[in-house]
Amino acid sequence: QMAPSVFCLLIRTIRTARTQAEEREMIQKECAAIRSSFREEDNTYRCRNVAKLLYMHMLGYPAHFGQLECLKLIASQKFTDKRIGYLGAMLLLDERQDVHLLMTNCIKNDLNHSTQYVQGLALCTLGCMGSSEMCRDLAGEVEKLLKTSNSYLRKKAALCAVHVIRKVPELMEMFLPATKNLLNEKNHGVLHTSVVLLTEMCERSPDMLAHFRKLVPQLVRILKNLIMSGYSPEHDVSGISDPFLQVRILRLLRILGRNDDDSSEAMNDILAQVATNTETSKNVGNAILYETVLTIMDIKSESGLRVLAINILGRFLLNNDKNIRYVALTSLLKTVQTDHNAVQRHRSTIVDCLKDLDVSIKRRAMELSFALVNGNNVRGMMKELLYFLDSCEPEFKADCASGIFLAAEKYAPSKRWHIDTIMRVLTTAGSYVRDDAVPNLIQLITNSVEMHAYTVQRLYKAILGDYSQQPLVQVASWCIGEYGDLLVSGQCEEEEPIQVTEDEVLDILESVLISNMSASVTRGYALTAIMKLSTRFTCTVNRIKKVVSIYGSSIDVELQQRAVEYNALFKKYDHMRPALLERMPVMEKATTNGPTEIVQTNGETEPAVLETKPPPSGLSCRSAAFLFSTGIPSITAYNKNGLKIDFTFERSNTNPSVTVITIQASNSTELDMTDFVFQAAVPKVEPWRAAYSDRLRASCKYFLISELVMAAYSDRLRASCKYFLISAFM
Amino acid sequence: GCLRQQTWKIHFILLFSRQGKLRLQKWYTTLPDKEKKKIIREIVQIILSRNQKTSSFVDWKDLKLVYKRYASLYFCCAIEDQDNELLTLEVVHRYVELLDRYFGNVCELDIIFNFEKAYFILDEFIIGGEVQETSKRSAVKAIEDSDMLQETVEEYMNKPAF
C-alpha cells in the first residue's frame, strides 16, 4: 500500500551487493537521494524514504538526518505516515536528544485521537521511550486512558503508566484511583498489564503494598479460575490457560505475601494447588512451577509447602532439559542457606551436575556443592570437587581451589587429610591458586606440627619434577627452609621416608633460584629457605654461604637486598643467626576468614583489638626470650653534620614484656638545632602474616622509634614481628 | 523507606541471522547508538559461539540473555538476573507464533522485506519491556485492522498530510 514494490526494490538491490564496499556505495547513493528529497519537503515520498532509512540504519549506517522527518510523519494526518513516523522515532530518537521533546505535542494530540489505533501508537511510543519530561507532561492523559472502558487502550495505558512511574516515581500516587477496579476486568490483556502495574507500585512503596494487600483474595480467585477453567483457545499454551498471567499473579502474590502472615496463609492453598497440578512435560508448565517455587520460598509459607517447593526443584534437577536444570540450580543456590537440610537431600544430583557440559550449570553446581559441604560429607564431597578441579575449564580453577581450601579448613577430618588435600590442589591447579592462599597454607602447615615431616617430604617430591607452578613452589620452598632437617634425617612417619641429602635439597632450591620460570617473589622464598637451612644443615653451610654471597650482586633488587642482609648475618651478626632463623612458632589467627584487619593504633597506649594470645610455651617463648635476654647492642643510628643519634635497648625491670628503647640525640655544633622531628615507622602488615614474612624478619626496615610508641607496640610487635634486624642507617 | 526495587522488564530484544546479520533490534532502555552497536556485536558473537549442548541462558554483565534459534534466525531477549528465564522462553515463542500467524509460515525473508511489520507486531505484544497482550488472536487482529487503516496508494496521494 506504500508502493511496496519500490521499497522492496531497494532492499533487493542492497542485498545484491557482494562486498561491504559495494553495499556502502549503494547506501551512500541512496542516502544522497533521500537527503535531497527531504530538503525538497516532499510529503508524498517522505514516508517511503524514512522507511528506507530505517532499513539502512539496521544495517549499521547513520540515519540521524532522518530524525526530524520522523517528527513530520508523526504530525501527518495519514495513518501510514504515523505508523512509520512513530517507528522511526522509537528507532532513531531517544531522550538524550532534545529533538525528542518536539514529539510531546503530537503524542498528546494522538492520545486523544478518534481512532484507537492512532491512540495505540502514541501510547506505545510513550511507554517505550518517553523521557521524564514527556512523562510529566503526559501523565494526565495516560491516567485518563487508564479509566477507559476500551480494553485495547486500557491495557496499553497501564503499561504506559508503569513506564511513567519508572521514569518519574513521584507521579505514582496519581494513578492510584484508576487502579480501583482494574482486576474486575475480564480481558486478559488488561488483567495482565494491571497486575504488572500493581506490582510496580507495590515494589516501590510500602504504603501501596499495604494498601493492595486486600487484593490477595481476588488475585487468588483469578488464579484459581485460570487453573480450573476449561480449554480457552485464545489463551491456551499446551493445555495451560494464559501462563503469562498466571506467572505475573504468582509474582504479585509473592510481593504481597512477603513478611505478612495473613496474606501468606490466604495464598497457601492455591500455591499448593498450582504446585501439584501443573503439567510438567513442557517448558510452559515448568515456567509456572518455577515461579510458584520462588513465591513459596519468599513468603511465610508453612514448612510442608517449603519442602514441596524444594522437591520440585529436586525433580527439576533430574529433568533432561538443561534449561530446567539451570533454573533449579539457581534457585537452590538461593535457598541453600535457609533450607539447608532440604537441599542436602539433593546433594548427589547436584554433584552430578558438575559433569554437565554447560558452563553456567557447572558454575552453579560448583557453588552449590561448596555450600553443601559439612562435617559429615566432607570426604566424599572433596573427592568430587578435586576431580572437578582436575577437569574443569580454567575460568573455574581459581574459585574452585579457593573453595576447596576454605572447606578443607572448616571441616578437615584429620590433619593428614588436610595436608593431602592442599597438596592435591597445589599440584593439580598450582598456577591458578590465588596469591593470598600461600600465607594461609603456610600458616596451616606450621600449625600442623605433627605433620611437618610428612608435609615437607611431599612438597619436596612435588617440586622435584616440576617447579613451574609458583604458589606450589613458594609453599614448598618455605617448608623446605623450615623443615629441611626433618627431610634429610628421614623422619617421616606417615609414609616411607625418602633418602635425600643436604646437597640434593640445596640443588632444588638453587634450581628454583636460577629458573626463569620463577617469579621474583618465588626467588625470595627460595633464597630465604636456603639461608634458614644454614642453621639446620650441618655439612653444607659453606655452600649456603657461597650462594648467599653470589646473590649479593643480583640484578634483582629484592634478591640483592636479602642476600646482602643474609651476608651480614653470616659476618657481623653470626651470634644472632641461630635464634633468628629458628623454627617459626604456631600462630593463632584472630579470625578464621581471611586476614585480620589492620588497626592503626598510632599513639594509643592500649594494644589494638586484635586477639593476640600469649605465645604458647616452647619454641616461641625461647625465640622471644632470646631477643631480650642477651640484649641488643646499642646502635649509632645517625651521625652527620654534628647530629648524633644513639639507640639503646633495655628490658624493663617492672614489666619484662616491655622493651624500652632510648634515643639519645646530641648536638655537637655551636648553633641550636630546631625542627627536630621523631617519626616512628612500623611495618604495616597483618599480624599473623607478618610473622611469616621472612622479609620482615630478616630486615625490618629503618625506623626511628619513640619510647612511647615502642611501649605501646611491644605486645603487638612481638606477636607480629617476631624477629627484626635493625640496620644502622639513615 | 523504599522496598528493594525489582524490575522484571525485558531490556532489549535482538533478532539476527546465523551469519550475524541483524534483522531487528528493540531497546527498552536508553543507550547511545555506539554502545548499542558494541553490545550487539558482543552478544552476537557470544551466542553464535554456543554449541548445541548448552542451555538457552547466558550470564551477561548484570543481565541474562535468553535465546532460541528458529530456523535461520536467532531470537535473543535480555532480562534481569532475577527474572523467570523459562517464562521468557515462552515470550520468545509467542512472538514467533504471532509472526507466523501474521505472515503465514514465516521465514527470515519475510522479516527482512517486511521488517516494519515485524516491529508493529512486536509493539502489539510488548510495551516498555512488558507483555501487554496474552491472546494470540487479539494481537494479530490489531495489526490486521491497522493494516486496513493504511491508505491505498491513491488515497495516500490524494490525502493532505497536515
Automatic annotation (TrEMBL), chain A:
It is found in: Cytoplasmic vesicle membrane; Endomembrane system; Golgi apparatus. It is a peripheral membrane protein. Residues 630-730 form the GAE domain. The keyword Aminoacyl-tRNA synthetase does not apply. Pfam families: Adaptin_N, Alpha_adaptinC2. GO terms for biological process: intracellular protein transport; vesicle-mediated transport. Gene3D superfamilies: 2.60.40.1230, Leucine-rich Repeat Variant. PROSITE patterns: GAE (PS50180). The keyword Transport applies. Its main location: membrane. Keywords: Cytoplasmic vesicle, Golgi apparatus, Membrane, Protein transport, Transport. One of its GO terms (cellular component) is AP-1 adaptor complex. Belongs to the adaptor complexes large subunit family. PANTHER family: ADAPTIN, ALPHA/GAMMA/EPSILON. This is AP-1 complex subunit gamma.
UniProtKB/TrEMBL annotation, chain B:
It is a peripheral membrane protein. Residues 10-148 form the AP complex mu/sigma subunit domain. The keyword Cell wall biogenesis/degradation does not apply. GO terms for cellular component: AP-1 adaptor complex; clathrin-coated pit. InterPro entries: AP1_sigma (IPR044733), AP_complex_ssu (IPR016635), AP_mu_sigma_su (IPR022775), Clathrin_sm-chain_CS (IPR000804), Longin-like_dom_sf (IPR011012). It is found in: Cytoplasmic vesicle membrane; Golgi apparatus; Membrane, Clathrin-coated pit. Keywords: Coated pit, Cytoplasmic vesicle, Golgi apparatus, Membrane, Protein transport, Transport. It comes from the Eukaryota. One of its GO terms (molecular function) is clathrin adaptor activity. One of its GO terms (biological process) is intracellular protein transport. Adaptor protein complex 1 (AP-1) is a heterotetramer composed of two large adaptins (gamma-type subunit AP1G1 and beta-type subunit AP1B1), a medium adaptin (mu-type subunit AP1M1 or AP1M2) and a small adaptin (sigma-type subunit AP1S1 or AP1S2 or AP1S3). Belongs to the adaptor complexes small subunit family. This is AP complex subunit sigma. It comes from Bubo bubo (Eurasian eagle-owl). The lineage of its organism: Eukaryota, Metazoa, Chordata, Craniata, Vertebrata.
